[in-house]
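hey m, so remember when u said the tokens were messed up on ur end? i reran from scratch. heres the input so u can diff it against urs
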Amino acid sequence: MTGSLPAGAAGPPLERPSGAGGVDPGRVPLVRRAWWAALDWAYAARWQVRSLGPTTADDYRTGSGQPVVVIPGVYETWHFMRPLMDALHDRGHPVHVLPVLRHNLRPVPASARDVVAYLHEHDLRNVLVLAHSKGGLIGKYAMSQLDADGRIDRMVAVSTPFAGSVYARLAPVPHLRAFRAADPVLAGLARELGANARITSVYGVFDTLIPEGSELAGATNVRLPVGGHFRILGDARTRSAVLAAADPGGGDPSGEPAGGLSR
């Protein structure tokens, strides 16, 4: 496999570091947020086009390391996760995707059942879940509600709305309104604390779609000096954080800093 893909335009330099992750979200200027949002949507559009390319899921299933199962976000195919999939596959992990999820529009419980069914069908154990956005909710639901025989070891979730998004109440379709904090599934997941210690939540200082951020009580929280909901997937610092979560004792041989950690 090739190495992880380039992160894209970096934009103007960051504000001075402040606290975990290097940048205080409350001090990110409006013009920077607008710049990051524009880059974010451009990144998403580019990966929608790239999802039509020749790379197949079979290209990632080789390797002798811990198996990885990928759960993308809403409206996304697994191709959005390729920068992180490449990094993990290059490290020796067999990486599995679930074509049945398609663009991930179904309710969280239904998709979580598909994830667990895939684990049983392929007899995968000691699994690391790699998730983005809604995928992290699906992963946590599977871990806390459906994984009776403990096939899932842990999860690293990037930009997941664990506390919901204030924008969800304005959404025109039910599968986006489901990201309200008061949604019964989301509220139920918030009360499920047992799995949190096995989750690493990676997120930026500004998220185009989740202004509340992705901090999760009891989890390993990694806040990066990155802006955007989608383009964080292609950032080298996210790759470092994901590799560190996949191999807690080994770190990232690239030597790149992963950002601030908190528990």
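this time it looks ok to me. The radius of gyration is 17 Å. if urs says something different then somethings off w ur setup not the seq
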